[in-house]
Amino acid sequence: MKAILATEFGGTECLKYKDVDIPEIENDEVLIKVVKTSVNFADIKARYGKKGATLPFIPGLDAAGYIEKIGSSVSELQVGQRVIAFPKKGSYAEYVVASDKLVFLIPDSLDFRTAAACPTVTFLSHRLLYNIAQIQKGESVLVHAAAGGVGTTAIQLAKLMGAEKVIGTVGNKEKVKIAEESGADFVICYEEEEFDSKVNELTEGQGVDIILDSVSGSVTEKSLNCLAPYGRLVHFGNSSGTIGKIKTIDLHSSCRAVLGFSLGTTRKQKPHLLKETAGAVIPYLVNNQLKIIVGHEFTLKDAAKAHDVIEKRLNIGKIVLNVTDED
Ligand SMILES: NC(=O)c1ccc[n+]([C@@H]2O[C@H](COP(=O)([O-])OP(=O)(O)OC[C@H]3O[C@@H](n4cnc5c(N)ncnc54)[C@H](OP(=O)(O)O)[C@@H]3O)[C@@H](O)[C@H]2O)c1
């Protein structure tokens, strides 16, 4: 089969389009013929060797396609079904293997473009807001990197879950419109304006109840300046590549909490939790209440070009890689 293989750690030149063997399945696994897969920020970090992968490896976290083969102990899935999945190894390939716990049926009405783009961003955003921050109706939410894959999804889900005010931050002016179209009530360009004082101004000095922080470094530190009493900052990424410091004095008397979450860890250690999440997010997609914004598409062969777009911070919404021509 064709696949993208990272043969070294480093720049996009390390991604090679190669012929590799179709992977074998274990008893509790499923082989999926991939129609489309998506690019996540984590794939760039993996390419630089920051995700603990061993060389050579196939990048990619999520895929959509058809079940090609099932293991002997798989009872709830059948060959030919349309599915989304979090594969065991990388997803930039014509075939992937996934544990039966991490394969979810999708109806015919859900197109493969949306399906391939959705798994990481919808499952993650739903768990961040519903399970980790435990969002309540009427609360306010600040979403950093609001025009990205997770950002555009989290804004919409926050609104669907009853958030009253959603504020987004973005890296440049062109991204403001995308965050607004996703439902953000206010969008701050954090390269041009101090987002913490602007958030306080927009919330009459109260700060926001929930902050979704995937940027880290100074963005995390400044976020504590605009988190309301009893607020929850959920930290789930460090796209800035820098580390932020949290001071204990910022937490107890204000009753505020800083929480962490990783979908990768949850996929490995508590995959059963994701069934509930699938049951919540797939209906939102099927009913068109949640729209996955796909800003860029490339063929599998051109995965390096897709990585380039994210690294230059030019990405808007999700990036999809087309493995076959089917939509
Ligand atoms: N914890 C988990 O399980 C989990 C799972 C998936 C994703 N994540 C994290 O969630 C975040 C969003 O993921 P995504 O795939 O949807 O990516 P994305 O938001 O579409 O792209 C990353 C964004 O990060 C922002 N950014 C800030 N500083 C940056 C820098 N120095 N270099 C590059 N980008 C920078 C950019 O937005 P602006 O230009 O608007 O700032 C960029 O568009 C990432 O941090 C990712 O690692 C975590």
How does this model look, in words?
- The protein has 327 residues and is of the alpha/beta class.
- The protein has two domains: 2-118 and 292-322, Quinone Oxidoreductase, Chain A, domain 1 (Alpha-Beta Complex), CATH 3.90.180; 123-264, Rossmann fold.
- The protein has ten helices and 15 strands.
- It has helices spanning 41-47, 112-117, 119-132, 149-160, 176-181, 195-202, 218-223, 263-269, 273-286, 303-311, and strands at 2-6, 15-19, 29-39, 63-70, 82-85, 95-99, 103-105, 140-143, 165-170, 186-189, 208-213, 227-235, 257-260, 294-299, 318-322.
- Strands 3, 4, 5, 6, 7, 14 and 15 form a seven-stranded mixed β-sheet that branches. A six-stranded parallel β-sheet has the order 10-9-8-11-12-13, with helices on both faces. It has a two-stranded antiparallel sheet with strand order 1-2.
- Helix 7 (218-223) links the parallel strand 11 and strand 12 (227-235).
- The longest helix has 14 residues, at 119-132.
- NADP nicotinamide-adenine-dinucleotide phosphate (NAP) is lined by residues 40-42, 120-121, 124, 145, 147-151, 170-171, 175, 214-215, 236-237, 239-241, 261-264, 310, 313, 315.
